[in-house]
Write a structure and sequence with these properties.
Blueprint lengths: L18 E5 L3 H13 L3 E5 L2 H10 L4 E5 L7 H10 L6 E5 L4 H9 L4 E4 L4 H18 L5 E4 L2 E4 L4 E4 L2 E3 L3 H12 L4 E2 L1 H8 L10 H12 L5 E4 L3 E4 L5
Parallel strand pairs: 1-2, 1-3, 3-4, 4-5
Antiparallel strand pairs: 6-7, 7-8, 8-9, 10-12, 11-12
Helix pairs in contact: 2-3, 6-8
Length: 240
């Protein structure tokens, strides 16, 4: 895998580079990613063992963790679960050669923020990293629990409640709802949704956003998400 020409991540040039930890036992892949991301302007550390990864993530002040699932020592699920149990909120992007909804659900249930299946595009990886860092910056200092009338969205635990009932959402459904909740009362365009929930390299049908909004309306309440013709979608203010 050869990374494309580097470009610096979006950040305040006055601050130190974002610090990333790669925990990946495929050494050639790990070192290739480290070289590419270093050229992008990130400060990158690499370890190849789950136990060492957990130790480094616990002791170091990292902005993001790239975590493989199939690791010696401790697998990625256990590393992720241990970090979350200890109260560490560092964004975690999980990598795996596996594929399937169950694996993704397990990764997210243990506290991962995103999931990428090998083989993956380097461009997509960088886009996911930027999105996670941007999301963390938007949420810095704020509560992970967002309350909108009787709708409660916990962005840290990936849980949604409507009144007393917990609503089960897929990872993508949750991400779409999260974007609307973070900007409640504002219009979120389809292109903004694609950028934040999918990635910059997405080349599929942009109408996929409509599919997920429709599903959310069925699972929540139809009137909760308003379509603003020609502009996007808005989470409606709760009527009292």
């Amino acid at each position: 895998m050869r990374p494309p020409d580097a470009h610096h991540p979006d950040r305040d040039p006055s601050r130190a580079p974002f610090r990333l930890l790669i925990v990946e036992d495929e050494k050639r892949l790990a070192l290739s990613l480290a070289r590419g991301l270093t050229a992008e302007g990130y400060a990158v550390d690499v370890v190849h063992d789950g136990r060492e990864g957990l130790h480094r993530a616990t002791e170091g002040a990292y902005d993001l963790l790239i975590l493989d699932i199939m690791l010696p020592g401790l697998n990625g699920y256990r590393v992720c679960a241990a970090l979350r149990a200890a109260g560490h909120e560092v964004p975690i992007l999980m990598l795996t050669a596996k594929d399937g909804e169950y694996d993704e659900a397990e990764g997210l249930d243990t506290g991962a923020d995103d999931y990428l299946t090998k083989p993956f595009s380097y461009v997509v990886l960088v886009a996911r990293i930027k999105a996670l860092l941007r999301r963390r910056g938007q949420g810095a200092g704020g509560s992970p629990v967002h309350v909108h009338g009787d709708l409660k969205v916990d962005t840290a635990a990936h849980r949604v409640f409507l009144g007393e009932d917990e609503i089960t959402l897929t990872a993508k459904e949750f991400s779409v709802l999260e974007q609307l909740v973070l900007r409640a009362g504002e219009v979120v365009s389809k292109s903004q949704m694609l950028e934040h929930v999918w990635d910059f390299a997405y080349e599929g049908d942009p109408n996929i956003v409509e599919v997920y909004v429709s599903t959310l309306r069925r699972k929540l309440r139809p009137e909760l998400i308003r379509t603003v013709r020609g502009a996007g979608y808005r989470l409606e203010a709760e009527r009292r």
